[in-house]
Specification:
It is a single chain. The chain has a 7-stranded antiparallel beta sheet, sandwiched between helices. By secondary structure, the protein is α+β, with helices and mostly antiparallel strands. Strand 6 and strand 7 form a beta hairpin. It has helices at residues 3-19, 21-33, 50-66, 72-79, 83-95, 101-129, 135-158, 160-199, 212-220, 301-311, 313-322; strands at residues 228-237, 246-252, 255-260, 267-273, 278-281, 285-289, 296-300. The longest helix has 40 residues, at 160-199. Mean pLDDT is 81; it is low at 314-323.
């Protein structure tokens, strides 16, 4: 390979390593061992060592199995937050061994950064998939990831410039989806804390002060301040905004609203009368659903406990839980 092709190939391998390091090592090592690819940089020849291939194969098999289970896959990703970027950085450095020290340092940093970026994106997607806690979805995602890693690694070794085009397209897709992934991560972290707080009997009584923009909106809507109660919440299905946008569930008089905090503007939307809404229990959060089902708002467990205490009352709450 020429110098630029070698560099691009190493970036493609780093990109793939951030998703599945062990699959990438197997592709490079087997391609070298059986002569499918020629003229690989010298240090990468070490990946064809039977011991390295054997270890990579065992770890790949373990990851293949773990990836099929909700939440377990997220834990596996957390463990690999250092391993995958480091592996991607070392592969890039090995590919750039004939370059100047400055070029090798640049390859090390860029390769590690690329692998960290793809690892973080993968981990975010897998956390997003945890909202569908059944193995079929996770199995399909895992198989798609493996096919993509094998395909990109082979492409990076054989047609580096085409691999570069694929990487640019994938980065554009990741950038487009990044805000949704970030909102989902924030939502899941809030749910994890809310589940623990509710388990310990801690309710967020002291965290119910509305921000000034919401107070102003409520005053404009002529909602008396003494009749308003607020709950930190996330939109789930909402035609007027993004999924898992953060905001407040607001009880104002007999009506319930969702106040969404946006990057450029804040909105206040009607869900309906309090008696027309239903609340469904979930594994990580509870969901308040409008009567027509067109809008639903997620409450972390400690906020949901407070909501039930405030609006259902002790007797109604027991009846609802036993139903």
């Amino acid at each position: 390979m020429a110098g630029w092709e070698t560099l691009i190939s190493s970036l493609g391998l780093s990109f793939a390593s951030g998703v599945n390091l062990y699959a990438t090592i197997l592709v490079v090592g087997l391609a070298q061992r059986y002569g499918f690819i020629e003229n690989l940089p010298g240090p990468l020849h070490a990946l064809s060592n039977p011991w390295i291939l054997g270890i990579a194969g065992i770890l790949y098999a373990a990851e293949f199995l773990v990836d099929k289970f909700p939440f377990v896959a997220t834990l596996w990703d957390a463990v690999h937050t250092l391993i995958r970027p480091l592996g991607g950085a070392l592969i890039a450095l090995a590919a750039a061994h004939e370059m100047s020290p400055l070029g090798q340092a640049a390859a090390l940093l860029v390769g590690g950064s690329v692998a960290l970026g793809t690892h973080s994106t993968k981990a975010g997607f897998r956390m997003l998939a945890n909202t569908a806690p059944e193995p079929v979805t996770h199995s399909l995602i895992s198989v798609a990831e493996d096919v993509g890693v094998f395909g990109l690694a082979v492409l990076a070794l054989t047609y580096p410039w085409l691999a570069l085009g694929v990487m640019v397209a994938l980065v554009a897709i990741f950038a487009y989806l990044a805000p949704t992934i970030w909102r989902m991560l924030r939502f899941l972290l809030s749910c994890a804390w809310g589940w623990l707080a509710a388990l310990l009997g801690s309710l967020p009584q002291q965290e119910r002060e509305a921000p000034q923009w919401l107070k102003d909106q409520l005053v404009k809507g002529r909602f008396p301040a003494e009749d308003v109660r607020i709950y930190r919440a996330f939109s789930r299905t909402n035609a007027g905004g993004p999924r898992y946008g953060i905001g407040f569930l607001v009880l104002a008089g007999e009506g319930v609203l969702f106040a969404r905090e946006g990057m450029f503007r804040n909105t206040l939307q009607q869900l309906g009368a309090s008696e027309s809404l239903s609340i469904a229990e979930g594994a990580v959060c509870d969901t308040v659903v409008s009567q027509d089902g067109r809008m639903s708002v997620c409450l972390a467990k400690h906020w949901a406990e407070l909501y039930r205490t405030d609006f259902l009352g002790a007797s109604d709450r027991n009846a609802a839980e036993s139903a």
